[in-house]
Amino acid sequence: MHLWHVFVLPRRLMGTMLLAVAVLIALSVYYTYPLGIYTLRLVKQDILYDIMLDPGHGGIDPGAIGAGEIYEKHYVLDIVLQMAEILRSHGLKVGLTRETDRDVSHLVSEGTRHRRDLLGRFKLMDQAQMGMSVHTNSTKNKEESGAIVFYMNDQYVDEIYAQIVLEELEKVQVLNEPRPIPRSTLLLLKAKPPVILVELGFMSNPTDLAKLGDPAFRGNVAQALCSGILRFIDWRYGEQSESGSPI
Length: 247
Ligand SMILES: [Zn+2]
Hints:
Layout: H1 3-32, H2 37-42, E1 51-55, E2 65-66, E3 70-71, H3 72-89, E4 94-96, H4 113-125, E5 131-137, E6 148-152, H5 156-169, E7 181-183, E8 195-202, H6 206-212, H7 215-239
Parallel strand pairs: 1-4, 1-5, 5-8, 6-7
Antiparallel strand pairs: 2-3, 6-8
Helix pairs in contact: 3-7, 5-7
Residues 56-57, 63-64, 72, 135 line the site of zinc ion.
């Protein structure tokens, strides 16, 4: 037996032990932050779409419920499907977080269904240059009505995006707030690209609910939101950039 055999074996053992420790550390980090937004952020995703549209809720999650068992999830899906068609006709690559009456929780494996659903939508947002989440609202005060646009605090580009969309929305729906509202607590707004969340009206308000139930109104809203998106794209890639390169 040569002398080096004595050293080779422990060195191999040492390598195996180090690997085992590394695996243990990786597993403990993974279970401490189970596929939270921090973990998702580490996953490099290709940009596949010009815009990701997110009709809120779906499947077992109805969202806001209006008098007569009318569900938010159906109205927002109808509006977003119309938006996808309009934007595609303008040559944009449009992604949708859902195209049918289902939620998005299947995309993420850890956490409660609600958490997985939110993280699934968040994950999809990172595949696009920009995003929009579309909702309708509800509150105990039946007087409250009108549209609200939320954007991420202190994000200048997101604020411009929210302001432009609000201006277009104002042409077809009353506003609940005259300016977009900054929020830091809405998970989707934390995605890498500019994302805004639009509340189109209150299903708890009879006037808003009647509007939302009118297919013509939903068509006008879809058109207004698309006008806002197209104006923002013009601003972002046109006036704002020196090269003027299109999206
Ligand atoms: Zn909603």
